Amino acid sequence: MDIGFIGVGNMGAGMAHNLLKAGYTLTINDLNRDRAAPLLEQGARWGDTVKQVTMQSQVTFTSLPRPTDVEAVAMGPDGILANASPGSVFIDLSSNSPTLVRQMYATFKAQGVHMLDAPVSGGVTGARSGRLAVMVGGDEDIYQQVKPVLDAIGDNVVYCGSIGAGSICKLAHNCISAIVAQAISECFTLGVKAGADPKALWETTRWGSFGRNAGGIHMLPDTWFSGNFEPDWEKGFFSTGLMRKDVGLATQLAREFSVPMALANLAEQELMEAMNRGWGNDPTGKVRLLQEERAGVQVRGDFPAGRTRIVVDE
Q1: What pLDDT, on the 0 to 100 scale, is given for residue 236?
Q2: How many beta carbons lie within 10 A of that of residue 258, not counting itself?
């Protein structure tokens, strides 16, 4: 299969390398040809223009910094759409706007060209090693058709749903990462200023329930996604009342040492509202129902199929 790859920077270079390693014929293009030199030495072909890359490829990838870059390369007068053959596939690996992705998809489809959004997560090291999560949105039959190609890029390729779903998953993932990073920053600065050693904070956090359970993410199918908020007396559970007490003690300590704790204060307010609902003896996960109410959506899923069913209030 002939594959085109546009954008061989830090992330793109690693993914392109793994496509070559898997035996695919690869034509590449980048604004900076010097970045392509290692790939050319490994057997990739150089395309002087996006047009040339697209015309030589059954599948064309983009891995670019911003949505405006993707739009220009994909929709420009000499871009992918203008030169793609009917039946060919365009796959955007960039972190992109779901709204833009859906607009482009409709335009591509009208001209008989398939499009998938497939942003990745795993960083530069993951791109080089092939240990990437690939989050794919688009027509499922096209996904199945090109899945062997995507498997050459990442070790965890997930079909997320219709077009734009991959981008939604990537944005949610990165936003969670940013919020958790800020929460860690808040609590570690509090801990150090109040007198704890950074190494002790790190060790206790990574080996406590949060660290061992990856913040509870692996338990969600059995709790939140299933709508099960009943106490599990056999496995034990942490109650909302106890969590409210502990977070309250943390924010009290922060005030004593003048440490700003914006996220902690928000979390405390959520827990206080849950207490006012009479949920003090329920597991802490039940607090998520407050956000569901505000958002007008229930997050429920059927597992192990791995697809989350989103029910939006009418």
Answers
A1: 59
A2: 7
